[in-house]
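=== How it folds ===
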Amino acid sequence: MKSRLKKMYVACVIGFMLVSCQLSGQDNAQAQRDRLFKAYMEVKQDITDENFAGSKEHVVQLEKEVQNFRLKGLQLDDMMRLKKVSQTMKTDAAGLKSAQDMKAMKVSFSAITQSLFTIMETMKCTDETVYLQYCPMEKGYWLSYDKEIENPYAASMRECGQLVKGMATGDYPEPVACH
């Protein structure tokens, strides 16, 4: 009887540890996505400010966050679909980091934006509502917290652009752990 109680106790402790580790892993994954989105928004601000010289620190941080980004908590079919998108985003982040001028930086940033939004449609990257917006003149995409257009690509035409799609917290699917 004593041995049986001891085994039950050990099983309960192990169960609580596993649940705790899984919740901690989900918190770490969300923290990683938060850092990625924060780094993205800092680079967007540098582009808005036409601050190519001063953007290097933010670009390096964004590239680091993109390289460290992991597709955790997804169902297998979503993971397989987004794996290629994630790889494309890594390539575009490397291109952003090696950009020699603001024009090349904008092209890479738009490409990263498209990949990031595709990932965001499945994974929650921020608690805020986020909008995908597009500038037809510059042929560039960006993400914004506001529906109102504030084009980071065209300093002389800040209101030029269109809203493509929005994502609010309620739009995300329920997270599912695959491991």
